Amino acid sequence: MIVHNNNTNNLLPLNIVLSDDGLYYGTFTTTSFSRFAVANKKALSTSGNSGRSGRSKHSSSVSSAETVASSTFVSDTTNDFSVNGTYQFKITSTNSAAPVLVAGTPGVFDVQLVNSAGNNYFIKLIAIGSPGEESEIYVNGMKLLVATVGATAVTSDIKSDTTGSFQVKAGKAYTFKITANLKPVFMAGTPSAFKVQFVKAIGKDYFYQVTAAGKIGTGSGFYVNSKRVAAATITK
């Protein structure tokens, strides 16, 4: 939650990524260029075992659910369920503001806004984790339900034009072409080494540019829907 000087506030989704160097990086996007500070933080839950990369079930990046009223939205789905590939929510805003739906555990589900009609927002949940992995789903900071990756995750239909290891000169960029039926989640395992930017989509081809922003000699793996597809090292 972002709290402004005029005592207004708004919720922003926080994306947490486990890097190759064992550190967690949190990112969010805001239209404000003002200074900010972390006023409160809570550790991720460590209860339960995920079975992949040591990630815990029900780890949550949302810590302000108790401050948001439930009257801000109505969801067509409220019970826990399994996602075989994708699932689409219909979230109805009751305060005229666009709802914010996020998955609490990074790397398990991707969230994409499909479209909106009036106060109805259609949001797609895409399974990108391993079968059996779980994540709490939040709307406007409130826990809505727990979703589990079913037997069919959206990973087998993805193809990268670049695999294996390669080098990028410091300050230079390289573009990946990822072919998939749905827009994939592309990320660098070490965000301090390579910055990732979505460029464009042409049909089922999605282009992502990675820029060598770190020190010479540092490297990073690149992941599509949590699956490692390539790695790069920064050179002179």
Describe the structure.
The chain is mainly beta and 236 residues long. It has 2 domains: 2-149, Immunoglobulin-like, CATH 2.60.40.10; 159-235, Immunoglobulins (Immunoglobulin-like, Sandwich), CATH 2.60.40.10. It has strands spanning 2-3, 9-10, 15-18, 24-27, 73-75, 81-83, 86-93, 101-103, 109-117, 120-127, 134-139, 142-149, 159-160, 164-169, 173-179, 186-188, 194-202, 205-212, 219-224, 227-235. It has a 4-stranded antiparallel β-sheet with strand order 5-7-10-9, with no helix packed on it. A 4-stranded mixed β-sheet has the order 6-12-11-8, with no helix packed on it. Strands 13-15-18-17 form a 4-stranded antiparallel β-sheet, with no helix packed on it. The N and C termini lie far apart (41 Å). The relative contact order is 0.15. Residues 33-69 have low confidence and may be disordered.
Q: In angstroms, what separates the terminal alpha carbons?
A: 41 Å
Taking Cα atoms only, what radius of gyration do you get, to the nearest Å? 18 Å
Q: Report the biggest beta sheet as strand number plus sense, adding barrel if it closes.
A: 4 strands, antiparallel
CATH fold-level name of the largest domain: Immunoglobulin-like
Within CATH, the superfamily of the largest domain carries the name Immunoglobulins
What is the approximate shape?
Answer: elongated
- Unreliable runs: 33-69
Write down the overall mean pLDDT. 78
Q: Hey, roughly how much beta strand do the residues contain?
A: over 45%
Q: How do the SSEs run, as a string of H and E?
A: EEEEEEEEEEEEEEEEEEEE
The helical percent reads under 10%
Class from secondary-structure proportions: mainly beta
Q: What is the overall number of helices? A: 0
User: How many E strands?
Assistant: 20
Q: Please give the CATH architecture of the largest domain.
A: Sandwich
